[in-house]
Amino acid sequence: MKDSPVQQKTDRNKHKRQLTVLLSLCAALIIVATLEALILANPQAYQFWLMLYPEGNTADYSSIVLSLFLVNIVVPVSLSLYTFFSIKKLGTPPLYRLIWGAIVFLAGVRRLLMFQTESILWYLTLALWAILFLVVINIHRLETVPGT
What backbone phi and psi angles, to 5 degrees, belong to 19? Predict the structure, then answer.
């Protein structure tokens, strides 16, 4: 039996709110990581780094900043890509919530253990990781209910 056009439209929009919330949080984490990399990639930060490591050069410092940036964005990018391409076919089963919840939690703990308490971006990133964790483990509750 074929679904009615109304049912097809409801099925198509079923995960729209879930994707919007999840992708927005991942985008915010990527933007904050980009801002942090831009702040670290300035002459004053480089001069301070040279005082700590006098044998270092510009290439070493650039590599460190770029590596930190990539480590900071790998989880949000992979989570958003995986969810974007798989949510319509697979939905958000309990195994998805368990595995990605653990990954997001551990990424937040890694960020917490950096102890960059002088940076407002550190506090913002911690808040975003906490919200993303809560969204990932409760993403099934964000599903659009037909008729609302």
Answer: -65, -40
